[in-house]
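in:
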């Protein structure tokens, strides 16, 4: 079973971290969110304390997460975690309340009809480097996430510090996660979803373009100056969005 840490009280909120990280990435932000939500921080397969062997597919990873979280929860996914949240909305729509995609996208790689991602060569380079030096590859990936963002050095220190708090993700899980990032295209299934969907994007994200917000359904907020980890660089802004989207609007909907 996957490792899950639960904290706080209120509506259930499942939080899924990004590639190569672990649920410790949420440690500061959870302190704020736990006053309004019951937060379930999950270590993805082969990451953090989840020493679990799972098939190397997005569907398998998503099913594994669903086994350890409550039904009727909001799902919040960051980066790779956002792909799992979108896949869960496709596979288990009746077991979820809605989604928040933090620096999320239905497709990370550019295509002729999708200019909002990165060139496929970027992931090919990371895959090649991963075989030689996993730790250095992760460090380079963290640097890419904050490049060009406001207060990038501070955010990078936070990312590196959190990464070192738990053992490095298993090599097989890193390879599988990278394959999921580079090979997934959830545009059609995400567009067809009937669940509430909220996009929380960084204005200066170098992995995905915030300009894609106009092409996506649902509510969205672009955090000025933020890169690929807006919850670290602008935690209050991101928390305010969650409060508005998931609590205020949720209560208004229930009252209606």
């Amino acid at each position: 079973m996957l490792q899950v840490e639960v904290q706080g009280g209120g509506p259930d909120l499942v939080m899924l971290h990004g590639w190569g990280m672990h649920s410790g990435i949420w440690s500061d932000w959870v302190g704020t969110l736990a006053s309004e939500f019951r937060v379930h921080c999950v270590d993805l397969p082969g990451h953090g304390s989840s020493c679990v062997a799972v098939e190397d597919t997005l569907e398998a990873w998503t099913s594994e997460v669903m086994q350890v979280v409550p039904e009727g929860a909001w799902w919040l996914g960051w980066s790779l975690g956002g792909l799992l949240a979108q896949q869960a909305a496709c596979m288990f729509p009746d077991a979820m309340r809605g989604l928040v995609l933090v620096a999320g996208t239905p497709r990370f790689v550019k295509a002729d009809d999708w200019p909002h991602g990165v060139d496929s060569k970027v992931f090919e380079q990371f895959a090649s480097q991963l075989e030689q030096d996993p730790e250095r590859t992760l460090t380079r990936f963290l640097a890419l996430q904050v490049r060009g963002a406001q207060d990038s050095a501070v955010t990078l220190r936070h990312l590196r510090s959190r990464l070192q708090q738990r053992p490095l993700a298993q090599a097989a899980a890193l390879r599988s996660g990278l394959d999921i990032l580079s090979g997934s295209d959830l545009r059609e299934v995400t567009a067809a979803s009937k669940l509430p969907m909220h996009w929380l994007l960084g204005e200066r994200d170098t992995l995905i373009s915030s300009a894609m917000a106009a092409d996506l359904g649902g509510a969205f907020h672009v955090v000025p100056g933020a890169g690929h980890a807006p919850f670290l660089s602008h935690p209050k802004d991101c928390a305010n969005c969650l409060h508005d989207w998931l609590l205020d609007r949720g209560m208004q909907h229930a009252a209606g």
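note: Residues 99 and 197 are 5 Å apart (CA to CA).
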